[in-house]
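[Solved] Which block belongs to which protein?

Original post:
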Amino acid sequence: MIKITGIIFLMTVMSASILSAADDAQTLAQRHIDVIRTGNVDKLVADYADDAVALTPPGLTSSRPPTEEGIAQGKAEIKKLFELLCGPKYFTAVKGMDARIEKVSDTIAVLHWTQFKGTPEQISGIDVFVAKNGKIVTQWLGPGAPDAAKPAAKSNRPAKK
């Protein structure tokens, strides 16, 4: 009986690891959004390959001159990046962001995001996730851009003469 229980346990663990390894880019991107909103950086970084690369907008990381895109390479640097994004300066925007994920293929997903939706500070952008073997191998964090000002609503009143 103990052998059968052990075999069942081993098969369950193996099945769980196979399912986890099979996560596609869309699944990883969705989990990324779910986890980043909690601020749990360790859990967030667990979905990255050991040699993953995250490319950031200019000035976000100190790895490069402020006018050039940043590069976080490897889990340690990616962890520092997300400690910054989950820190006091950015976390309100990250936690409340509106997100939609577009599956391009099993290995590529595009995250369309909006922060401060419905406010004058509204900003939108995209991130691109590339996955291999159930891990994020590359993430391009697109720079956000302020959304265009909404035109004033037209009035039905006749024009003044």
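(Second protein starts here: sequence line, then its structure tokens.)
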Amino acid sequence: MPYRLELETRARKELLDLPKAIQDLLSDLLDDLQNNPRPPGTKKLTGQEGYRIRKGNYRVLYAVSDKEQLVRVYRIGHRREVYR
């Protein structure tokens, strides 16, 4: 059963502020997270809860709740800015 995807307000705004081509790439990535919340290439974050996955120079930071079948995306952005 696929996980439910939830974008926090900040992540939604960050996604909409990106160029259209990058939005399309990341939208496909977000759709894939619903079927497999920990795909190959995913890294567990150190110092904070959650995971990160990369697509080029962009990162998606998210948390997974297996109990609730939920993927909660809380940051989306360029690699030099997303961890701040």
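Accepted answer:
You had them paired correctly. Confirming on the second one: The radius of gyration is 12 Å.
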